[in-house]
Design goal:
By secondary structure, the protein is mainly beta. Helix content is 4%, strand content 49%. Strands 1, 2, 3, 4, 5, 6, 7, 8 and 9 form a nine-stranded antiparallel beta sheet that branches. It has a four-stranded antiparallel beta sheet with strand order 10-15-12-13, with no helix packed on it.
């Protein structure tokens, strides 16, 4: 639980917003982590693949949680908040966060022009001395979802976290949230939150909504207006973790 809270409560420094347009081909990595905490070391490896038969130019933007550019260090590349790549047909690239002296987290936006088939995933790795590494894989999330479901499990000392991103550079996302138990019954009335443009919220469900502690079921997210990408993180009381992919109806 300590590792979980450290991951979800990293300090956020203010910075300036910048422009990145969103299309139906664009996708997001809702959570990127790198660097040490008091007890462990984190790194993220991103893999991007061009599945199409034509050359695909792609841009990978990195953002701080509150929306400004994130100057990130990737192994073998200069420090920057934007990387541009040209992927040949069927080519795959792999990018890993470099070792840094302080814990950092944010999110990434993959801009893909029409009409290329580009996909990918991220791997989070936690390293603790004297113990095997823990890893979890998460796929890219849609950048223009307006309706999504996420399973959660907060029973038996397990805990579910949520990373939710608004990738739009022009529109705040007004997101309505409702939770249901395993039988489909509402656990709490509709909750509404506003996610500012190009920002990310990360929180533990049983902390933000104590009524969900000790329960499992589904969370439904609906945005009007705006759009979002969402990722679930499930933490075992023994310290292991995994990702939970959202579902879009």
């Amino acid at each position: 639980m300590l590792t979980y809270l450290l991951l979800l409560s990293a300090l956020m420094a203010p910075s300036t917003q910048r422009t990145a347009s969103v299309s139906s081909f664009d996708q997001v990595f809702p959570q990127i982590v790198s660097g040490p905490t008091a007890t462990d070391e984190w790194a993220t490896t991103v893999t991007i693949a061009n599945l199409g038969d034509s050359t695909a130019p792609v841009s990978l933007y990195f953002y701080a949680p509150e929306g400004g550019p994130w100057q990130i260090q990737l192994e073998g590349l200069p420090t920057t908040d934007l990387y541009n790549f040209t992927l040949q047909p069927k080519q795959t690239i792999t990018l890993t966060t470099a070792k840094v002296t302080n814990f950092q987290h944010g999110w990434a936006f993959l801009s893909v022009p029409c009409c290329h088939t580009v996909t990918g995933y991220a791997v989070f790795r936690q390293r603790v001395v004297g113990r095997p590494d823990f890893e979890a894989v998460t796929p890219l999330s849609s950048s223009n979802s307006q309706h999504s479901f996420l399973a959660f499990d907060n029973t038996s000392a397990f805990s579910t976290g949520v990373a939710i991103v608004n990738p739009s550079n022009s529109t705040n996302a007004v997101i309505t949230i409702q939770a249901r138990d395993e039988n489909g019954a509402l656990i709490f009335p509709l909750q509404q939150v506003t996610l500012l443009r190009q920002t990310k919220n990360v929180y533990a469900l049983p902390v933000k909504y104590p009524i969900l502690d000790g329960k499992r079921g589904t969370i439904e997210f609906t945005s009007t207006p705006g759009q979002f990408g969402v990722l679930g993180l499930r933490f075992n009381p023994g310290g292991a973790f995994t990702s939970i992919q959202s579902w879009e109806p």
